[in-house]
Specification:
single chain, 487 residues, alpha+beta, Beta-lactamase, 6-stranded mixed sheet, 5-stranded antiparallel sheet, 19 helices, 19 strands, globular
Length: 487
């Protein structure tokens, strides 16, 4: 009997300890993670009717709290103007679906509950004021944002990222199709549910913007990945700017009977050997497959990681970010395919923008930043973003050499559509095949001016034929270069 009582007490003690531990975790250790979880709408229900700080672009709100006209819930989150233009950045704030985008990542700031706003909360308490959140101003240029959005045709899945390679500031970031966050921020739950169902039914819809690709999944980067092959080759010491590369019209993938052909739309077929300049100008496949087979998957993978593949994007982005993927345990045939950005190599538009920005910035990749500054309700600036180095991707010498070759891709290669009169533009195109469909993901990435980069542009159009892709990528980048540089 005594032994049974002792066992019962031990069991009760263990259960009490587990319960105490669980409560401690939820209330102390895990509270912040739980509150930030976009699936958790309990925290939102507590503050849904309070006045949140606005999200601003060039001083104008793209998200704000407005009077709801209700005594029980005084404020309503609203997204003025062309809400779809900024939906992938602002996200939504819903009492059913939680929050996304900046509304989620900056929630503690927008509600005034962040540590940096402690003194403001104390002041509001003593003055008897209702709690107010701080405003969050983004780095976005509204004119460039609007232009970039207009350059993706309606009905076309695509994404455009525009950055300042020297600072990491995101100038514009758009995707189509988009949606109107007002439709899910409504207090009418039935209407919000019906709207979300329609939004999610859109083919290619992405609620997570360009950080994870136009359709919410990472994309094959195609030939823009050849910039990483080139950096790896030069870094190895086995190749230099004068190296002669094998350039057969096609090569048999090792261990298979499958042929890897050169790009049929260029002039690769005119030479059976090529230097780096020509191979990049014409986007020839076989030279870069040969480089990868020579260097090995670890060397290419190490260089990809240095450009950010498989790595985080720093703490200034404030959006959920999916890092690019360099596959592991490749056989030789898969390695050859991966070298040209196919097989299982994957990247988001932002990932490619970071890669290109590192080349533009002398080999140094800056943290991508989306928040310019945070301003308290009494209008004093709480914090302002400062450029920070994220990682070193390659040497200044290699970056300069690749830049020189990228200018030739535009001036005399297949990216001629990106050329801007009076400005030296550096660029690279990519065409990632989508199985046997005959359609591709078409890419352009580049920067200008090449000798003093002020702007980087990455464009991807998904599910297009070669002709359509060529018309929607390089020429689109040209228009953005001209707008930013005011040419």
């Amino acid at each position: 009997m005594n032994q049974a009582i002792r066992n019962a007490w031990v069991a009760l003690a263990v259960m009490f300890a587990l319960l105490l531990g669980a409560i401690s975790y939820v209330q102390v250790i895990g509270a912040d993670d739980l509150n930030k979880n976009p699936q958790n709408n309990r925290a939102i229900l507590q503050t849904f009717c309070q006045e949140r700080g606005p999200i601003l672009v060039a001083g104008m709100p793209i998200a704000q709290s407005v009077s709801s006209g209700s005594d029980t819930c005084k404020f309503q989150r609203a997204y003025p103007g062309d809400a779809a233009l900024y939906a992938g950045l602002s996200g939504y704030y819903s009492n059913i679906y939680g929050s996304s985008g900046i509304e989620n990542s900056m929630n503690s700031t927008l509600t005034g509950k962040s540590d940096e706003l402690l003194l403001d909360r104390i002041r509001q308490l003593f003055l008897g004021e209702q709690p107010k959140g701080a405003s969050v101003e983004l780095t976005i240029d509204p004119a460039i944002q609007k232009l970039a959005y207009s350059l993706i045709p309606d009905g076309q899945r695509g994404s455009i990222v525009v950055t300042n390679p020297k600072t990491g500031a995101i100038i514009a970031m758009v995707s189509k199709p988009s949606y109107d966050p007002n439709l899910v921020a409504t207090q009418d739950q039935a209407a919000a549910q019906a709207s979300m169902k329609k939004i999610q039914a859109q083919p290619g819809i992405n609620l997570n913007q360009s950080v994870s690709g136009p359709t919410g999944a990472l994309l094959a980067p195609g030939s823009v990945f050849k910039l990483i092959d080139t950096a790896a080759a030069l870094a190895s010491g086995k190749y230099n700017k004068d190296s002669v590369l094998p350039n057969p019209a096609q090569m048999t993938l090792p261990g298979t009977s499958t042929q890897l052909p050169n790009y049929a739309g260029g002039n690769c077929y005119t030479r059976d050997q090529a230097d780096f300049a020509f191979a990049l100008e014409q986007s020839c496949n076989t030279p870069f497959a040969s480089i990868a087979l020579d260097l090995g998957q670890d060397a290419i993978g190490k260089q990809a990681a240095a450009f950010g593949f498989g790595q985080d994007a720093g703490d200034q982005l404030h959006l959920d970010y999916s890092a690019g993927v360099w596959p592991q345990n490749l056989n030789q045939a898969q390695l050859a395919q991966s070298a040209i950005g196919q097989f299982d190599v994957k990247a988001s538009p932002l990932q490619i923008a970071l890669m290109t920005s590192a080349i533009a910035n002398g080999g140094v990749q800056m943290k991508p930043s989306l928040v310019k500054q945070i301003t308290a309700p009494d209008l004093h600036v709480v914090s302002a973003a400062k450029p920070e180095v994220l990682r070193t991707s390659t040497t200044p010498e290699i970056a300069r050499q690749i830049t020189q070759w990228m200018t030739m891709v535009v001036s005399q290669g297949i990216a001629g559509g990106a050329a801007v009169p009076g400005v030296q533009v550096a660029g690279k195109t990519g065409t990632a095949e989508l199985g046997a469909s005959g359609l591709n993901n078409s890419w352009f990435t580049g920067f200008a001016p090449a000798d003093n980069p002020q702007v980087e542009v990455t464009v991807v159009m998904e599910g297009v034929d070669v002709r359509t892709g060529a018309a929607l990528t390089s020429p689109t980048a040209k228009k953005i270069f001209e707008a930013v540089l005011k040419k």
